[in-house]
Sequence to fold (306 residues):
Amino acid sequence: MEYYEDMAVGDVTEYGSKTMTKAEIIEFATKYDPQPFHVDEEAAKGTMFGGLAASGWHTAAVCMRLLVDGVLRDQASMGAAGVDELRWKRPVRPGDTISVRVEVLEKEPDPNDPSRGRVRSKLTGINQDGDAVISWEGLGLVERRDSAHGEAQ
Amino acid sequence: MEYYEDMAVGDVTEYGSKTMTKAEIIEFATKYDPQPFHVDEEAAKGTMFGGLAASGWHTAAVCMRLLVDGVLRDQASMGAAGVDELRWKRPVRPGDTISVRVEVLEKEPDPNDPSRGRVRSKLTGINQDGDAVISWEGLGLVERRDSAHGEAQ
Fold:
C-alpha cells in the first residue's frame, strides 16, 4: 500500500491502456453528451471535428479508470477535492488507444486533518501516436502512514 | 440559435433536473471509477463517504447532459478547450436530484479565429436541498453571428 510518505515530487509513472470503440463512444455520449459530433458519424463529418470524436468527459472517465487500475488500487487514497486545468488537447477517435502518465507536482500535509496529505499530480492521457489528448492536475488526498499505524495501536 | 453576441457577462440561467439512481451510480463507477465507495454499498459504509456516493466524474457527466439539453442544443457552440477549478463539493447519493446553474463570467473574441468567441462560464451542480455538489469554470467556444451570416453570402 502506498501512503503519503511514499510519494515524492517528480515521481512519474505510466499506465494503460484502453482502446476506445465506436460503440462505446456513441453509448457514453448518448447518455451524457449527445452533441452531433459525439453520437452521429455522418453529422460529425460536417463539424469542426471532421468526424466522430469521443466526448471529452468520456476521455476523462477512461483516464480515471486507468488511474484506478494503475494507481489508486494500491494507494491509501482518500479521494480528491477536484481537478484544475483540465484540457482537451486533441480529438479521441474510434480505435484510439489511451494510456496515462502521472507526475507528482506538489505535496503537503493537510493543515486541517493530520491523518492525510494533499498531493497535486498532473495526469496526461496519451494516444497510440504518443500525442497528449487530455490533461489535468488532480488534487488528491492520501492517507499518512503514521495515521494508519496509529489506528492499530 | 444563440450566438456569441447574444451572451452577456453576468447572465445566469438554471436548468435541470436529473435524479441519480443507485443502479446508475454503480453502473457508471463499475466502468470508469471502481473504487469501493462508488460501487459497493456495504464497503462504502466504512469509508470517508459513510455510504455509497456517485463518482465525481459521473456527477460531471450528468451536469454535462443537463448543459447539452438546457443550453448547447440552442447555442452555436463550437466545443470547449477545457475546464478550470472543477471541485467536488459534496457527495451525491442515490436519489439525489441534480440541476445546474450557469453564469457567464467573461467573453472575448478569439484572437486566433475571427469566426468565434471565447466564453468563460461557471457551472454549478445543485442538489434537491439547494446545496452545491460540483462546480467548474468552462472554457467554451461559441460561433459569432457575423461569421455565420458571412458563410451564407
Observations:
- The first helix of chain A runs from residue 22 to 32.
- The domain at 4-152 of chain A is CATH 3.10.129.10 (Thiol Ester Dehydrase; Chain A).
- Chain A touches chain B through 32 residues (CB under 8 Å).
- The two ends of chain A are 19 Å apart (CA to CA).
